[in-house]
Every structure is written in structure tokens, then in C-alpha cells.
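Aim 2 progress update. The chain analyzed this quarter is reproduced below.
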Amino acid sequence: MDRYEGFREFVAARERALLRTAFLLSGDAHLAEDLVQTALAKVAGRWRRLARDGNPEAYARKIMYHEHISWWRRRGRRQEYPQADPPEPGALPDIADRAVRRLALERALALLTPRQRAVIVLRFYEDRSEADTADLMSCTVGTVKSQTHRALRRLRELAPELAEFIGAPDRSEVLR
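Predicted C-alpha cells:
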């Protein structure tokens, strides 16, 4: 019996989804590829047990989140991305407007801490529950809630042009 039986199929089926998540975490295509490769190498080492008893995709994602934070800590604070004000939304056609919004969001996500970025990706991109997010990030549900709150507040500060997508602050935040 091949010890990697089913692993190649798993990689073929889930690699693109893992790569998208890794890109959202890292903000860089090359780092995202490295992150996925690191995660898949660790999944391969435990493949028999994961294929039999576990959820290999959840394990790979958890590895990616933890590795991204570890890389960030080892590297120190990442360099600030150049900031340019996007053109006025009404001045561009729809397709260009979407691209500008996406770039503004990408720039704002890059300025969040790795934990804040991870919680935003897990909660809103992957549509995970607070409990699932807490489990993946190895923290409490309370930490997920506070990190989500801080990350959304920071996104509103960094990219006010995205307010319609980020949502309005809750009443408790307005009353402070």
C-alpha cells in the first residue's frame, strides 16, 4: 500500500483553495506558495493518520495560519506598503472601480497584524464560525471576537472608501 495514497488527489482538489487563503493571509503570491508548500509538506508527513481519522484540509489551514504568524514574528514588522489614494469611485468604470476597491482592501489587509488578518480571512472570506476560527487559531472565542472587532475598526480607519463593504461600527463603538 502506498503511504501517500489519496494525497495527490487531495492536493489536486484543494491546492487552489489553500493558495487563495494563503494569499489573503500573506498578501504576496510568492509567500503564499511557500506557505502552502510548507503546510502540504507537513500534511504529507502525517497523511496516513489524517486520511484515516482527520480532516487534512483543516489541518493544512491550521498549519498555514500558525506558520504565517511564525514567519512574521521571525522577520519582524513587515515593510509598509506604499500608500496612494485611489481615484474617486465615480470617475472610473465599474470594472476599474472594483479593481481599485480590491487594491484598497489588499493594502489595508497588509497593514493588519497577522492575527487580525487571519481572523478576517477565516470569519469573512472562509465564512467560519467564531468557534471554528478559535479552534483553527488555537485561541478562545473571546479572542476571536476582540480580534475581529479590532481588525474591522482598523480596516475602517485604513480604508474609509470601503465602508459600505466593511459595515458600520456597532452602537457600542459609536457610544464610546
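The CA atoms of residues 80 and 111 lie 7 Å apart. The two ends are 63 Å apart (CA to CA). These observations will guide the mutagenesis experiments scheduled for the next reporting period.
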